[in-house]
Amino acid sequence: MAIRKSPVSSPASSRLASRAASAQIDGSVPATTRVAVPAWAASDEQQSRVWAALSEQLGDDAQWPAFDARLRAHLGDLRRELAPLYGARPDFEAFLIKLLGNAFSAWRERSPELKALDQAREADPQWFHSNRMLGGVCYVDLFAGDLKGIEASIPYFKELGLTYLHLMPPFLCPEPHSDGGYAVSSYRAVKPSLGRIEDLRHLAQRLREEGISLVLDFVFNHTSDEHDWARGALAKDPFYSEFFYIFPDRTQPDAYERTVREIFPDEHPGAFSQLEDGRWVWTTFHSYQWDLNYGNPEVFNAMAGEMLFIANLGVEFLRMDAVAFIWKRLGTPCENLPEAHHLLRAYNALARIAAPSLLFKSEAIVHPDDVVKYIEPAECQISYNPLQMALLWNTLATREVNMLQKALEQRHHIPDGTAWVNYVRSHDDIGWTFADEDAIQMGIQGFDHRTFLNRFYVNRFAGSFARGVPFQDNPATGDCRISGTAASLCGLEQGDPHAVARLLLLYGVVLSSGGIPLIYLGDEIGALNDLHWADDPGHGGDSRWVHRPVRDLARSAQRDDPSTAPGRIYAGLRHLIALRQHLPSLAGGRLHAFWTRNRSVLGYLRSGEGQGGGGNILVLGNFSEHPQAIDAAVLLGMPAAAVDLIGQTAFNLRTGFTLAPYQMVWLDCRGG
Ligand code: GLC
Ligand code: GLC
């Protein structure tokens, strides 16, 4: 198969590439430059050469002025981030020119609607800090069969209140092994059973018309082994061989594995997989997911093209998959390296230039100190909050709010212009990613505590209400994570009387602690574990499929019936969502967690600095199956009378009161 293709597509950028090549040979500013170098670039010779070469070539195009304005604003950022990675190469300048030539081609292809959106979003960069923001996430096939089915589900998404819809990767992927779509064979084609790329573009537009932003993954750490690039590398094409980490024998893999942890040890030990021809390829995740080598600038360039293609489909947030792993260096854990941040910020600068309304969501399920390093306006504007997620489940198991409260006090604040995506469940496992240093301060020993949590959630602990399944149980390291739907982990599967209240309590925190709340679709009707997950082709061995059931239409039909568990969950959740839509202080604004003097009761105050102002909302949640008393002394600074917005009951804060098992209150203190 003839694999090699030039990533440069347009005639304009081909001209550029050849010009860049000649600029590199004589190393000087092209003699023919007829454009005056702008003041902003004059202080920096390389920057001015790059800009001059581009404007020389593209300046006559009607689309150039809008591109140029953004180029001027962000070229410095782009170059600053790429220089530490590739700046020492003699072809660095040519690389930049080629990259930006491709970016211009992508910009030119961007639809007028998206260009209008770009302008609107640039004028209101805080738009996503809104109490009306609500996310949902699902698999296209499991939720609705195909992309047209998703489009037909828009009324349901609106009924729920979604403004953000994350679809698991719908792109072409190997069958039956695709890691739920996270092994991408082409970023420009949709998996045939789901539809066509035009359906995706149409869906993005329809969603936008309905006020829902489409979110897709940017799976850029790896491709599937069926991607053209991987096929090229397998065929020993010299260009594509440099796209991956492929080694002739175990020498380098052994050297790397001394410091690299195993992510999917059930599937293959270590970080490498052996090819049929005996060579070894880096596969952090499954053996059919080959890690890309970003040490090679051609990889950056090629993936930039895919990123802008996806952006031009109408995607508004890109979930940056597996960000922690994208840069490798011998002798390090090959996770969270500084170069990973340079890469992300470079992609971000490129987005600001060629697809400005595109924002990034970080997926870093790592130590909390590392999670926050990805979150800033110039890198990822939003991020999963895996610490809050894990500690919500921790608190249900222990009935002690200490760790969650500390996290809210000390680790919740992130820079202005960024937001957490708070969630209860995702399509992935639950990993206990709290910081051992935080835990030990409370007398909690990290390893032992994780062992307890794993036993609790897989029902190997007396009295547990949870019905989870172990994921990647690794006896060698003692590491293990948890699979299972939120409802099954809350006790619904085993008929525990508090299951519904537990689930609503978790979502109550997610909906009141700021940022963008994200619902794993199915949770809103209490979807239970799929007990037959291992029978599906390609799923056996990956227990995460237990919490990826096909949408249960019969259950969904019960959502308006309060005599059923799905009905009670749905009504409870809808009630919280509707309340939040009227409470600006629950989105932006500050969160002040405090010690309620009751170890099972979480307390925080949301103060109204959010968009549109608002006042104080006092949130209290009882994480135990017993009634819990709140001492009036704890609430001394608060007004005497407050109304619980959830239960619509009046509270006298001067006398103290008792919360029912798993009760949450949102006390409206705005009047006082
Ligand atoms: C991310 C995805 C996960 C996938 C992995 C490899 O962590 O969330 O589902 O297995 O990346 O792409
Ligand atoms: C995926 C895996 C998870 C792993 C994470 C690392 O989300 O499912 O187990 O810890 O990647 O980013």
Automatic annotation (TrEMBL):
Residues 139-555 form the Glycosyl hydrolase family 13 catalytic domain. It holds the Pfam family Alpha-amylase. It comes from Leptothrix cholodnii (strain ATCC 51168 / LMG 8142 / SP-6). Coiled coil: none annotated. This is Alpha amylase catalytic region. One of its GO terms (biological process) is carbohydrate metabolic process. It comes from the Bacteria. CDD domains: AmyAc_Amylosucrase (cd11324). Gene3D superfamilies: 1.10.1740.10, Glycosidases (3.20.20.80), Golgi alpha-mannosidase II (2.60.40.1180), Oligo-1,6-glucosidase, Domain 2 (3.90.400.10). The lineage of its organism: Bacteria, Pseudomonadati, Pseudomonadota, Betaproteobacteria, Burkholderiales. GO terms for molecular function: amylosucrase activity.
